[in-house]
Amino acid sequence: MPPARVSTVVLDAPDAHELARFYRRLLGYVVRAEEPHWVLIGPPPGSEGVALAFETEPDYVRPVWPTRRPGDQQMMLHLDVEVDDLAAETSRAVEAGATLAAYQPQDDVRVLFDPAGHPFCLWTEAGR
């Protein structure tokens, strides 16, 4: 086993529970732990995937992508979510509460924003 490994990605949000609900719908994850200002979700037992945690940050500022002006809150990271059917999963993500980004840099990737404004990408192996 390596000396260290990433176990969880944590995203700040104005409401941790609201953002956790969105990613549960998007990914089919289940709640693993929950506190008033923090939620941990992950794949159902027996499934693979990276756990996600959400922490309420009262002073949260939505990132701007792509960055337009110096001083904009920059995107610090984004999640890449592999899908089989890009069009269908993009529609499903929007129905779950995501917003499609106006700028789409690649044909085999869709950039979306979660309800807290974090960019994430849906992508398909078909184009790679």
UniProtKB/TrEMBL annotation:
Residues 5-128 form the VOC domain. Pfam families: Glyoxalase_6. It comes from the Bacteria. InterPro entries: Glyas_Bleomycin-R_OHBP_Dase, Glyoxalase_6, VOC_core. Transmembrane segments: none annotated. This is VOC family protein.
